[in-house]
Amino acid sequence: MKNKVIITAAITGSIHTPSMSKYLPINPKDIAEEAVKAYGEGAAVCHIHVRDPQTGQPISNNDLYSEVLSRIKSSCDMVVCITTGGGLGMTAQQRLIPVTTFKPELASFNAGSINFALFHALDKYNDFKYDWEPKYLAMTEDFIFPNTFKSMKEFANTFNECNTKPEFEVYDSGMINNIAFMINKEHVKKPVYIQFVMGVLGGITPSSENLIFLVDYAKKLIGDFEFSVCVAGRAQFPICTQSLLLGGNVRVGLEDNLYLEKGVAAKSNAEQVAKIRRIAKELGIDPATSDETRKILGLKGLSEVNY
To answer: By three-state DSSP, how is residue 13 classified?
Structure first.
């Protein structure tokens, strides 16, 4: 274990739909406020998606991003990690727009293709506010989230040009090999920052054994690296706690899990941040500040972003 942990709050994402939780932030003002509240509870980083303010559908829109980013920056010095996953079905060019436009300190970088499946949520939810929701979920039964070696090379070049640190999203073990290949070909510079994403149907399942395997495999192929863990669903807090024990960082938030505990809906991202902070505190680990996070990850600083 280490003395400081980077806590990331994934504010809204593109997985859950508005009918699944009345607490899911939709408009830019609410997304930004959720990020600032999470910061107040100890999150040094927020992971940002935007949605159509009227329907809650995930979209890529510079005006919405600009409002969210400016609101956060005017309230605190939080590190913003902008998505390049975007919404399911977006092109690679659409997914890169937030990086080229805003040149953030940190942005997500998906490390390989995956059957990104959400359709099974239709077994649990059948009453939707908006027509797009069931269609969006259903289409993932025949959907591949594409991240080819060609597109990853293009992403790496764009990140390098913008001096934006990649947060490599690893959904399965083969993606670790992809990162090692990109390092070997000098498209990516070490040290790297990896987010192990567990629990998405199509990727690796969340378990203690699987997390230990991922960390060990990455050590063998990459060497020294910084890592964080996020988990879709009810295993969020147990596996994030294991990440703390292994010397890793953690991501919580409504993008990944809509609950605070069994049967209790999370009313905000801040509630989840406060819970993982309390768990870390019991283990003798303090939340890293934004400036400490910048030092740990080697980020360029808030003065170098374009927002």
So the answer is: coil
SS3 4: strand
How far from the centroid of its chain's Cα atoms is residue 249's Cα?
12
Helices 62-75 and 28-40, interaxial angle, to 10°? 30
- Angle separating helix axes 236-245 and 269-282, nearest 10 degrees: 40
CA torsion sign for 66, 131, 129, 11 is negative
3-state secondary structure of 289: coil
Only one residue has tokens 């699944």, namely 20
pTM score over 0.90:
yes
Identify whether the C-beta of residue 49 lies closer than 8 Å to the C-beta of residue 13: yes
Contact (Cβ atoms closer than 8 angstroms) between residue 84 and residue 103: no
Q: Which two tokens stand for residue 258?
A: 């809509």
pLDDT in tens, 262-305: 999 999 999 999 999 999 999 999 999 999 999 999 999 999 99
Q: Angle, to 10 degrees, between the axis of helix 174-184 and the axis of helix 208-221?
A: 20
Closest by Cα among 243, 112, 235, 237 to 173: 112
CA–CA gap between residue 286 and residue 263 (Å, rounded)? 28
Give the integer Cα–Cα distance in Å for 189 and 19: 41
Selection from 212, 229, 204 nearest residue 6 by Cα: 229
CA dihedral 165, 171, 174, 178 (to 10 degrees): -20
The third-level CATH classification (topology) of the domain covering 4-300 is TIM Barrel (3.20.20)
Strand partners, 231: 198
Angstrom distance (rounded) from CA 269 to CA 257: 10
Q: Give the Å distances, CA to CA, from 139 to 26, 118, 119, 124, 129.
A: 22, 8, 7, 16, 18
> Peptide bond before 58: cis, by omega within 30 degrees of 0?
no
